[in-house]
Amino acid sequence: MGLVANAANASPGTLTSVAELTAYRAAADAGSSPQKENRARLLTDAREAWAWGSVTGAFGTTGTPTSKKCQPLAGGSGADYLLEGAPDAYAQVMGSVLARDESLAREARTHVLDLVDTSGFGGLTSEYSGDNQCVLDLALSIPVWIETARLLEDTTAWSSADTGAFRTWLATQVYPKVAWASRTRRNNWGAAGSLAADAIASYVTGGVTALQEYAPTRLTLTPAQAVAAHAGMQLSRVGSSWAGDAQCANRGIQWHGGIPEELRRGSTGCDGSYLVAGDAASTYQMMHDELLVFHAEAMRRRGDLSLYQAKTSQGQPALLQSILFVVQNPAGGTSWPWSSSRWGTLITAASFYGNAKLGSLARSDSTFRGGRTLPYTRVTARPYASGATGGGSSAPSLTAPGQPFIVD
Fold first, then answer.
1. pTM as predicted
2. How far apart are CA 286 and CA 397, in angstroms?
3. Do 237 and 191 contact (CB within 8 A), yes or no?
4. pLDDT tens, 271-299?
5. Rounded Cα–Cα distance for residues 22 and 176 (Å)
6. pLDDT digits (tens, 9 = 90+) for 231-240
7. DSSP per-residue string spanning 245-292
8. Using alpha carbons only, what angle is made at residue 224 by residues 302 and 296, rounded to the nearest 5 degrees?
9. Residue (of 228, 131, 145) closest to 185 by Cα position
């Protein structure tokens, strides 16, 4: 496999880079643990048969307001392509580096480029509303599809033309919809929208000069302006002043870590200081946290720690407090197990915060892949260099690529 074949296009991803994976491969080749074992597990996933079909043409929201699905309107294969295909294509390109297997990179390329002739992505009644499930599915999946494309840029399987085609599709078909969610929604839809809009704007820089938004206000932004705007929207969502479409009187991450707009979805309710049941409030709290941590990592890679360092009204790190709200409730209420499908949140956050509870959980065993949003973080997570802390005023450096994340 030829690395850095397209160095003019290549750029490090949010979660890992070819350079980091190459160092990880060297450690695995030398028989080091856990690199050797983790590589074997990842390659098992990467070499599984592709289960998500192919896609083309118009996508749209089908079903009813209480049971919606974003899928190809012509039917056929590909109904779960966006959400389920993203981590599988990501595993393929990671596997191509870890095993020097270019056939896996070619497979991943096929799946990424399968998206570029899809279009539409409308709702049941409106393109820009909560009844458009495609907005959420795009926002949740696109950051991982972009991570896959970034890694492909450092392989011989990918070309400059591929980058151009994928950038154009992201800018025209996806960005306007996820930007709308970022601008309007306080809940997990908005968190996903801000993350995806930021990821798109960052990826298209250098190839797309303007990004269009159509709702809630018509805007034309440069990619750099869009990156700043949607990082700002995420910070506003963590804070309390911006209202958005809030349905709770209290807004943002509370002193105890609860997110009212997610807690209202279950029996805890807007004003709960701990989860009273493992119901929808728990599910949506963890989902929101996962999206915030992914976005914080994106910002950290470009030297911006502001999301990781955002504080609650009592001065605690808001993202950390929001995770502890579930697993070690700061208000003294009931704590709950973290979902195994969202384990990447804990591993990634533990690589920033020097917190004993997160460190303990990050070391514990769980599903290897994790979920769809932060997959394979047992391979990609990197700790800060010795002496650096998550609370510092400047961006600490990461440790040498290939060193596994281990919390002392």
1. 0.93
2. 28
3. yes
4. 999 999 999 999 999 999 999 999 999 99
5. 36
6. 999 999 999 9
7. T--SSS-SS-TTS--HHHHTTSTT-TT-SS-SSSSHHHHHHHHHHHHH
8. 35
9. 131
